[in-house]
Amino acid sequence: MVSSVSHTLKITVMMFMIMTGAMAFSQILAFCGASSGLVQLAGTLDLPPMFILIFMQIILLFMGVFMEPLTIMMVTLPIYMPIVKSLGFNPLWFGTIMLINMEMATTTPPFGLVLFAVECLFCRGFGVVANAFRCSSSRRRKLSNSAYSGSTVASRSI
């Protein structure tokens, strides 16, 4: 019981430290005027707003390979939310897309955190999960090669 309380306390302190750091980061951004500068930069670009949104999601996808979703949100939301509001997007839908993108990023190799959780869940070596990705990618290649050769992908069983 003492061990579980100790571990819970450690995790809680870590979460609060991440949240405290994120709050300090957002306050520093607001105090320095970096948020308003980024909003002005996004507004002056000659790119469609959807392209800027897609670029922001690509950055999130890349960050999700190496970091956990909570940390990504704490670092990027103080930067992204003023830009999203200035571009005229609904913050609720942006948050939904952001969460889906981050969860997708946590399943991508080489550091997909969800993969390690699945490995522990099934108590098998990581080779099993790696083989699943290898088989999946070889099956996709096989299906895409057959699609170019004139046969239909829909007629094949997956």
Topology of this structure?
Layout: H1 2-32, H2 34-44, H3 49-66, H4 69-87, H5 91-105, H6 113-122, H7 126-148
Helix pairs in contact: 1-4, 2-4, 3-4, 3-5, 4-5
Biggest beta sheet attributes: none
Radius of gyration: 21 Å
The residue ranges in which pLDDT falls below 50 over 5 or more consecutive positions are: 150-158
Mean pLDDT: 76
Q: What proportion strand?
A: under 5%
N-C termini distance: 48 Å
Put the structure in a nutshell:
With about 160 residues, this protein is an all-alpha fold. Helices cover about 80% and strands about 0% of the residues.
Structure commentary:
The chain is mainly alpha-helical. It folds into two domains: 2-108, no CATH class; 124-158. The chain is built from seven helices and no strands. It has helices at residues 2-32, 34-44, 49-66, 69-87, 91-105, 113-122, 126-148. Helix 1 (2-32) packs parallel to helix 4 (69-87), helix 2 crosses helix 4 (69-87) and helix 4 (69-87) runs antiparallel to helix 5 (91-105). The chain is flat. The relative contact order is 0.08. The model is unreliable at 150-158 (pLDDT under 50).
Summary tags:
2 domains; 158 residues; mainly alpha; flat; 80% helix
